[in-house]
Design a protein that fits this description.
With 287 residues, the protein is an alpha/beta fold. Helix 1 crosses helix 10, helix 2 crosses helix 3 and helix 3 crosses helix 7. A hairpin with a 5-residue loop joins strand 1 and strand 2. It has an 8-stranded mixed β-sheet, sandwiched between helices. A two-stranded antiparallel ribbon has the order 1-2. Helices cover 46% and strands 17% of the residues. The radius of gyration is 19 Å and the shape is globular.
Length: 287
Amino acid sequence: MTEQTAPDTARPDGAGWREEQGVRAGLFTRSFGPPPREDGTTAVLVHGLGLSGRYFAPLARRLAADGTPVLVPDLPGNARSRAAARRMPDVERAADALARWHRRLSPGPSLLVANSVGCQVAAALAVRHPRLVRRLVLLGPALEPDVSGLRHCGRLLADAPREPLSLLGVAATDYLLTGPLRFAASLRHALRDATGAFEGHLARVAVPTLVIRGAGDTIASHAWIRHAARLLPDGRAVDVPGAAHAAHYSAPEAVARLIEEFTAEESTEETTEETEAEEAGKAGEKA
């Protein structure tokens, strides 16, 4: 597959930024904003079951508009990265493949943002490759442990009418590109991970984590989201009113604000630590 590049676009304030797509480091990747750099945080957005990164475009553009480099891959075996895997990888192998891709494209730890089953991949990556993750955002993490595949499918169907029609078109196209056999294999892997490793991975995530749920989400229940946040060593949960499972698509502005407030805390913490270190140094000099 050849590299494809979209033309430069312009932000409303006139500042230039790039929006590109093509195969990079083995996975089909959409890039928004400036290139990743060592002195800043890159946002990596991880899609859900059988989908592609296309439905992250509204959130990616919103984050990139403030100067954040954003990378959105299609996971191996999915959509336009279908050829990257002969067989659909399980959750941990997908996380390892994503880690290899990350190391080639982003020089430092990232802000990892994931939706639905992508949250299982992100949690596995955060545990297996902790140096690659600076902060973690889980949007409607699925699948819920101890819930059958049939019941999950029922929840998915119940969620569909609550999503924008344009999202349903994107999802239908992506499911066709991924194919029914690979979708089924990915669902089996995700169900196995949900009943086995997922909760253990959440309990071992070493970075601050924000769990976001659309208030109308029928896939990730309110009770499960709160339980997941409690499992995380440094986790919290918040709802987005008026949104369903894909809150990042239907309410990108609200989700972006939550992410920006969450990441701003890191700068405050670093400033506090620097101030405390300076004061300790001065006290040591006086002594």
